[in-house]
Design brief:
The chain has 3 helices and 2 strands. It has about 100 residues and is α+β, with helices and mostly antiparallel strands. It has a domain of about 70 residues. The chain is globular and about 45 Å long. The mean pLDDT is about 95. The structure holds zinc ion. The site of zinc ion has 8 residues, from strand 2 and helix 3.
Length: about 100
């Protein structure tokens, strides 16, 4: 019930100029860049939260949406819905899983 209310409030206040949270274009927005940066500050120096690999092992790290943007667009700009995953773990997770690795 609260999730439904959260979704309604989200879409009510979602800026019209922003692309849909599940779109590729969303990742190029200033709003997402700000959230992404806050997550990087929060988890500074942390390796991939799933496998433990980091830049020393030659992997790229991504800021991942724990609950996918496709199914939970209202959480797309929530720092609390983000974790750090390497390229491979992020690719494997896709948008079908919502495991919190933190
Ligand atoms: Zn990983």
């Amino acid at each position: 019930m609260f999730d439904l209310i959260r979704r309604i409030v989200f879409w009510w206040s979602y800026p019209r100029h922003l692309p849909h949270p599940a779109s590729r274009e969303f990742l190029d927005t200033y709003e997402w860049a700000q959230v992404r940066y806050q997550v990087l500050l929060k988890y500074r120096d942390k390796p991939c939260m799933a496998c433990g690999c980091g830049p020393k092992q030659g992997v790229w790290l991504n800021v991942d949406h724990i609950k996918p943007r496709k199914t939970h667009p209202h959480l797309a700009l929530s720092v609390d819905n983000c974790q750090i995953l390497c390229n491979l773990c992020n690719k494997g997770k896709g948008n079908w899983d919502s495991t919190d690795w933190r």
